[in-house]
Design a protein that fits this description.
By secondary structure, this protein is of the alpha/beta class. The chain has two domains: 267 residues, Aldehyde Dehydrogenase, Chain A, domain 1; 188 residues, Aldehyde Dehydrogenase, Chain A, domain 2 (3-Layer(aba) Sandwich). Helix content is 40%, strand content 21%. A seven-stranded mixed beta sheet has the order 15-16-17-14-13-19-20, sandwiched between helices. The longest helix has 30 residues. The radius of gyration is 23 Å and the shape is globular.
């Protein structure tokens, strides 16, 4: 059994003020595999006070000091990477290869990227007679999700540390143990006391407390739209900065000249990866109506070949994270059938041979964009294939969504691709399944949030801009 019943506050592992414990359930076995302490308002107050005390000294640290800290963090992260992988497998039930090659790997990428950006970042910039100073915003409260637990922590903590901010983290109660290892990495690397603090807890308690707390200067939240709205509402009275990365229902436009066997098959696998629990997953595949049958055949074959199982079974995908998530996905699949969507692959229930665990059948529907399964974020291995008659219509369908985090375009004609890209109302567009770029800003339009993470653009969330008129670089 894993155990994380202390909080990391002011450089030490501190006992909680109240004795409240939550059992963490395995999505594979449906049985508890660990427990965590649940924080109370007094625990959060201690963490915020530590971060406020640490801020003046850490904010005044030099770039070289912070680069040296990142070098130690990277070394410690490498030492603990196997431990992170094991924790992520336990928390998510995902294949070990996914934990190793993506989940744990991307945390290291964020640390390296932030360090490299830090080396040349223009914290001071002379613009005519005015000096622009970019200064750390203060104490940052981070509320992170379970679907990419280390990625989401690293994407916030790394740039905040690089900018000179101090931090209070509330990780998801569904993936707390990888977060605990992250805190151990911070400690082993010598992050100064109070600069990084972590309190486990529930959203209505610690999450809400972070949003409301007058001692926190900004809050960065990743999660659902509904929870994001609550964070903004609770943060409003203190007029703190709110940075959010919320949901998505991303369209994957397969243009008429695309290599369909490759484009459709890769699109299906991309939508199902991480059991579909990815905010920018391409969950709406738009194909020319004249080639709909061809796309459906490819999608059916691809989805049918995806192996679902436990980490020990050499599976392609594991379960969804919790009973609540399993029930939601099952309800959405049934709703799709009830609304008249054509079931192409998968469907309700667990895959054959899996009588327990939160496993979902890789499911493909032929649908219309007005159906609930094409409009709501399901967060499971469910794909909608939607037909279009013209590329103009495909763009309209892609933009006809409350979300706008990502878009995907497959094709050969560069001019046609460029026209689609120009008109998509999304924060990031991927063409022909490219290699991820750690410097590419990540974030969404519309109800997918505000602000950007990754690379140098991530720094902007953690800096205040001060204009010094008549100032020079020495000011």
């Amino acid at each position: 059994m894993r155990d994380s019943t202390k909080f990391y506050i002011d450089g030490v592992w501190a006992e909680p003020v109240e004795s409240r414990v939550l059992e963490v359930v395995s999505p594979v076995t449906e049985a508890p595999f660990g427990r965590i302490a649940l924080g109370a308002p007094a625990d959060l107050d201690r963490a915020v006070a530590a971060a406020r005390r640490a801020f003046p000294v850490y904010a005044a640290s030099t770039v070289q000091d912070r680069i040296a800290l990142f070098e130690r963090l990277i070394a410690e992260y490498r030492n603990r990477r196997d431990d992170l992988c094991a924790a992520i497998v336990d928390e998510l039930g995902c294949p070990p290869s996914l934990a190793r090659d993506l989940h744990a790997m991307v945390g290291l990428v964020h640390l390296k990227t932030a360090m490299n950006v830090l080396k040349d970042y223009p914290f001071r910039e002379q613009r005519g007679p005015t000096l622009l100073r970019r200064e750390p915003i203060g104490v940052c409260g981070f509320i992170t999700p379970w679907n990419w637990p280390v990625n989401q922590i690293a994407a916030k903590v790394a740039p905040a540390l690089a900018c000179g901010c101090t931090i209070v983290l509330k990780p998801s109660e569904l993936s707390p143990f990888s977060a605990t290892i992250w805190a151990e990495i911070m400690h082993a690397a010598g992050v100064p006391a109070g600069v990084f603090n972590m309190v486990h807890g529930l959203g209505p308690d610690i999450g809400r407390g972070i949003a409301q707390h007058p001692g926190i200067d900004m809050v960065s939240f990743t999660g659902s739209k509904g929870a994001g709205v609550e964070v903004m509402q609770h943060a409003a009275p203190t007029v703190k900065r709110v940075h959010q990365e919320l949901g998505g229902k991303s369209a994957n436009i397969v243009l008429p000249d695309a290599d369909f066997p490759v484009a459709v098959a890769k699109g299906v696998r991309a939508a199902m990866m991480n059991s579909g629990q990815t905010c920018n997953a391409p969950t709406r595949m738009l194909v020319p109506r004249v080639r709909l049958d061809e796309a459906i055949d490819i999608a059916r074959t691809t989805a049918g070949a995806i192996r679902v199982g436990s980490p020990e079974q050499a599976a392609d995908i594991g379960p969804v994270v919790s009973r609540r998530q399993f029930d939601k996905v099952q309800a959405m699949i049934r709703q799709g059938i009830d609304e008249g969507a054509r079931l192409i692959a998968g469907g309700p229930g667990r895959p054959e041979g899996l009588g327990s665990g939160f496993f979902v059948r890789p499911t493909v529907f032929a649908a219309t964009n007005s159906m609930s399964i094409a409009r709501e974020e399901i967060f499971g291995p469910v794909l909608c294939v939607i037909a279009y008659d013209t590329v103009e219509q495909a763009i309209d369908i892609a933009n006809d969504s409350p979300f706008g985090i990502a878009g995907y375009v497959q094709g050969r004609d560069e001019a046609a691709i460029a026209e689609v890209v120009e008109r998509l109302r999304v924060g990031q567009v991927s063409i022909n399944y490219p290699t991820p770029d750690p410097m590419a800003p990540f974030g969404g339009y519309k109800e997918s949030g505000n602000g950007r993470e990754w690379g140098d653009h991530a720094f902007e969330a953690y800096l205040e801009l001060k204009a010094v008129l008549g100032g020079t670089r020495a000011a």
